[in-house]
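REQUEST ID: PR-0412
SUBMITTED BY: lab tech R.K.
PRIORITY: routine
TASK: structure prediction, single protein chain
INPUT:
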Amino acid sequence: MTRLLKIVAIACASIVGLAVIALFVIGSIGPDTAVYTGHQVPKRFMKTIRSLNLLSEGEQIKYFYSDALVDIKAGLYFVTDKNLVLYSTYWEEPETIIPFEQIKSLDAEYDNSFWDDSMVNVTTYSGMEVFFPVSSEKGLDKKFVQAIRKNLNVGEGDSKGPVIPEL
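STATUS: complete
OUTPUT:
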């Protein structure tokens, strides 16, 4: 009986040890759970972004978020000085690059929970509607949305200008 108990204890400890190692590896190679400001985006993520041709020459990332566990291609979203860029291998068309002048409306449902992301909804003048998550950690979801909002051209009394609800 004692031998069986030792075997079970060793097996359980091994499983727990492997789980801790797996979590450590995932945590060290996967993206942070918060939004990165442009200068904080890790070089390995920038390499992936460039390999996917998501940035044009001279374009700079202002805010970046990935809801992926390990490989950022599963879901990455960022605001540059020129575009809103969305990419997910789970979508039929993985790449969506929206120049700010094409954005008709922008709305966000902020979630202050650690476990849930805020959701952003963008509609373009061509009728495309996209939803994507942004982490609410450190309040950077609001800055991510504000970075989009401040680049939208809204003229006084312009009926063709974007609809941007105040929060």
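NOTES: Residues 1-30 form one domain.
REVIEWED BY: pending
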